[in-house]
Every structure is written in C-alpha cells, then in structure tokens.
Design brief:
single chain, about 220 residues, alpha/beta, Rossmann fold, six-stranded parallel sheet, two-stranded antiparallel sheet, 8 strands, binds magnesium ion
C-alpha cells in the first residue's frame, strides 16, 4: 500500500530541543530540592504523557506549578532548539510528493509558534496539532476528521508513546533514533521500522516508491 499521509512528532523527530527540556526539568528538580538528572538519566526516565514522568520525579506537585516552573526555565533556553539534520530535506521531499502532512506534538503552542521565526517547518505541515498531551487518547480524532486510511498513514516519532499511538490507531510506524529514547526501549514498542535518522527513511521511501511493504522488505537489517 502506497503511503499518502505522514504524521510527525516534533521533539526528537524534526528538532532537537533536548537542551532546554533537560534544563527546564532540572530547574524543577532544583526547586524541589532534588538531585539534577544527567542526560543518560533523563533519556532513561523521560516519557509521555508528561504527567506520568512528573508523577514519578515530582510526586504531589500541582500540574499548574510544574508548568509555571517549566516555562520560566524553558523560555530563556529556547534559542538552543535546533532543526535536526535531514529534517528540512525530508519535509521538502515529502511535500514534493504531495503527501498530506500532520504534526502531532505535546509541545506547548506558544513554544512552537515562537520557534517558527527560526525554524519555519510550519510551511511543510498541513495540519499542525500541538499541545497534545496524550497522543493515544487523541489519535482517533485525527483519523476520523481527515478520514485517514491506516494502511496509507505513517506515524514517525522518537518515543515509545509515539509508537504506541501508531499501534492504537492501527497506523504504520517508524521510530527515529535522533531523539529522547534509546534503541532498546524503542525496540520494545515494536515499530514497523527503526531508522538512524530521516535521511535513511527518505532513501528507503524513494527506493520503494512509497510502498510501505516494499520499504519493510528493503530495510530488513536496518532494525
Ligand atoms: Mg518526540
């Protein structure tokens, strides 16, 4: 089946926002008198929905208070967000094939909009959904609204929650290793495909003429 739709995650898939996110998380931990996390600890611990992560690392703290602290620390650090290598090339490639594109991200609307001056990926994303805290709970809404055919729709993300969301919607799934989650954790969520980065996926899609089954045949061994 030839793909006609792509749903993108944002952080770790199209941009690297790890420095401000870790910075803001450690700011919260300092406020609570707790030990800061190293990069490795953060990658092992962080998960979506955010609420599950904060219930573990900051139990009992009001979500509103967490959000206020997160913003306080994130905004001064947001100039450190960078487009990931190959992301813009991939988006251009996708748009040149008349693929319908969606963004499905838990990122705060305000943070997303303020980035667009520097990283104007919105021009490639037909239907941006931001502020989606629980993607699994909202994927059906997207599928129904745009009448997405699951076999023609690929979800690309860097976290277990992204892959679980794809499975929940019966969508095709591709995990990228450019983000927050380590290979062994991503593997356990059983995506159709795992790639090092979007350039690998681009080559596979091109070689397979966008037929997902053919992509999976060609990629055996990439996983
Ligand atoms: Mg992500």
């Amino acid at each position: 089946m030839v793909l006609k739709n792509i749903i993108f995650d944002w952080s770790g898939t199209l941009v690297n926002d790890m420095p401000p996110v870790i910075g803001a998380t450690n700011y919260i931990l300092r406020k609570l008198g707790k030990e800061e996390m190293t990069l490795d600890e953060f990658r092992a611990e962080f998960c979506l929905p955010f609420s599950q992560f904060y219930e573990r690392v900051a139990p009992g703290v009001e979500p509103g208070q967490l959000e206020t602290w997160f913003h306080e620390a994130y905004i001064p650090l947001q100039d450190n967000v960078e487009a990931l290598d190959h992301a813009e090339d991939f988006l251009q490639f996708v748009k040149s094939k008349q693929i319908r594109t969606f963004l499905f991200s838990s990122m705060h609307q305000q943070h997303y909009e303020s980035l667009q001056e520097r990283i104007a990926f919105n021009q490639y994303l037909d239907h941006p959904y931001v502020g989606v805290w629980d993607k699994k709970a909202r994927i059906a809404e997207l599928i129904n609204k745009y009448r997405l055919v699951p076999e023609e729709t690929l979800f690309i993300g860097d976290m277990v929650h992204d892959i679980e969301t794809a499975h929940h919607g019966n969508l095709r799934s591709c995990a990228v290793l450019t983000g927050y989650t380590r290979l062994e954790d991503l593997r356990s969520s059983e995506p159709d495909l795992i790639v090092e980065d979007l350039s690998v996926l681009q080559e596979l899609l091109e070689a397979a003429n966008w037929d997902w089954e053919a992509v999976l045949e060609k990629s055996s061994g990439v996983k």
